[in-house]
Amino acid sequence: MGIFSPEKRPLADADSQRLRQIFRSAFLAELSAYEIVENPGPEVMTVQASLIDLRNADISDVPKMRAGLNDVARPGVLVFMMEMKDSSSGRVLARAADSTANPRIGSRRSNSTDWDAVQVAAQHWASLFRQFLDQNLGR
Fold first, then answer.
1. What is the CATH number of the domain that holds 51?
2. How many domains does the structure of the chain reveal?
3. What does R_g of the chain's alpha carbons equal in angstroms?
4. What residues make up the domain containing 128?
5. Taking the C-alpha atoms of 122, 35, 38 and 103 in order, what is their torsion angle to the nearest 10 degrees?
6. How many angstroms separate the CA atoms of 56 and 61, rounded?
């Protein structure tokens, strides 16, 4: 999972790892009905998740994001984005973004992270993704 926050408010490395692990666990639990593989192949989709925290950003931070992220993110919001690609060609099949959950995530320079809220947000987004897959893959 990619994590973007403004350079002036970076996450501590341990917090980034904990955040990734919480999201990984939530998504693996929600996607237990799906086969998860590590190699590209026919009928395999690559999924890239990104957490974009621009709550304490200004417009100058937006151009520094990778292509595709600045289409859905703007200063003042926290966005979770999923990008689904064909695993063989790399062609983007779909992008989905949501900013309804808003857990407090601290930085190296300010307040602490609300880990319970992060867990709830990860479960929320994992559930939305599973529902999307179920609806679009006929499960």
1. 3.30.160
2. 1
3. 15
4. 2-137
5. 0
6. 10
DSSP string covering the chain, please?
Answer: -EEE--TTSPPPHHHHHHHHHHHHHHHHHHTTTS---SS--TT-EEEEEEEEE-TT--GGGGGGSPTTTTTT--TT-EEEEEEEEETTT--EEEEEEE-S-------SSS----HHHHHHHHHHHHHHHHHHHHHHHT-
Mean pLDDT computed over every residue of the chain? 83
- Across 23-30, average pLDDT: 95
pLDDT band, residue 28 (cuts 50/70/90): very high
Distance from C-alpha of 25 to C-alpha of 43, rounded to nearest angstrom: 24
Residue 65 identity: M
